[in-house]
Amino acid sequence: MAEAKNTEVRTLAVRVTPDFHAQLSMVAQVDDMSLTDLMMVALQNHVAARRDAEDFKAKVQAALAEAETQLARTKAMLLGTLPEGTAVEPSTDATVRGRTRRRDETSG
Questions:
Q1: pLDDT-derived band of residue 83, with 50, 70 and 90 as boundaries?
Q2: What is the reported pTM?
Q3: Whole-number pLDDT of residue 67
Q4: CA 83 → CA 12, 72, 75, 89, distances in Å?
Q5: pLDDT at 85
Q6: What are the CA-CA distances from residue 93 to residues 26, 54, 87, 90, 101 (Å)?
Q7: pLDDT tens digits, 24-72
Q8: DSSP state letters, 45-104
């Protein structure tokens, strides 16, 4: 299967025990592939399996519905059509784009 080469890549560091690293290295060597290629195949397989899982599909639908609700609220706020008396929740420093920051990102 030929894949198009991305011109931009991101580095992802994964911490594993020395024993697990040895196992990964052995599998990569037996399969005649680099450790990076092994990890990419494993990650691609996991993502594909999750996308097919019913519980994941339900979570995606819930996240999309929440995003659509938030978009509609933001649009109403920007256009000044938010009903009177509707509370606007301020964002907190601990939340960025709907995600909770890691502890090391909030200190500083």
A1: confident
A2: 0.58
A3: 97
A4: 44, 12, 12, 14
A5: 66
A6: 44, 33, 19, 10, 8
A7: 999 999 999 999 999 999 999 999 999 999 999 999 999 999 999 999 9
A8: HHHHHHHH-HHHHHHHHHHHHHHHHHHHHHHHHHHT-SPTT---PPP-TTEETTEEPPHH
The residue count of the chain comes to 108
State the number of CA atoms in the 13 A half-sphere of 18 facing the CB.
0
Q: Which residue has the tokens 């509609």?
A: 72
- CB burial of 14-40 (b: ≥16 within 10 Å; e: otherwise) equals eeeeeeeeeebeeebeeeeeeeeebee
91: alpha, beta or left, given left = phi > 0 and alpha = psi -120 to 50?
beta
